[in-house]
Amino acid sequence: MTVRSGDANMRASRGISDQEQIPVQAINLAAKLATFSEYWQPRVVGQFNGNDLMVVKVKGEFVWHKHDDTDDFFLVLNGRIDIQMRDRIVALGPGEMFVVPKGVEHRPVAVEEAHVLLIEPQGTPNTGDAKTAVARKVI
Amino acid sequence: MTVRSGDANMRASRGISDQEQIPVQAINLAAKLATFSEYWQPRVVGQFNGNDLMVVKVKGEFVWHKHDDTDDFFLVLNGRIDIQMRDRIVALGPGEMFVVPKGVEHRPVAVEEAHVLLIEPQGTPNTGDAKTAVARKVI
Lengths: 139, 139
Hints:
homodimer
């Protein structure tokens, strides 16, 4: 990734303060993933129309959950995951994408470590329940 | 990708007719890209909360344009593209993502063929202008 002119200039021209957390620049997903090791703790790496663009490392079984108000986007970057639903399992490898429709119970499972791109509206609890959700970190 | 139980069953249980164009199943982006060869003609491969998830093959220079009402999401899957803006160029390779903020003029350029994942609200004209936009095809 190369940014050939100053990020600060563009941000200033758009009235964006340096304190804003999401930079207006290219995002290398592998580089972002290399900055942390915890499983099931998505990191916010960008934003799109009020949605958080997140990378996550997963291994093992997540909890069964659903999101009543939003679809749930998964794109596998490395490794393999299963999206378990009550009546099916969808297996995903690198370059494979799946959207769990809103309201559908699901549980992501990975036998080995896998890396996934997630998209969710800002504020969506990752477990479907604000009481048990992990805090969303921006990197 | 493996769907281990019938797609039709789930669709029926959710009240979805077989005529609906977006299947509830995993999406292999490379397989979708292999089905067409035209440049700058995005194919809709899924949907997420009213957004179209699209793959596109690009080569050469697109037109300068902007979207006043939506950010513009790019994730490079293969090859390299430059996102030219009036005061900078952001160069992207595989696994690199960039979101052009709404209202910012930009022009994607690729010296060699590149493959890109795009996300835009349904109905967004790819040129920023419905009069010149390419029809959005679902595959």
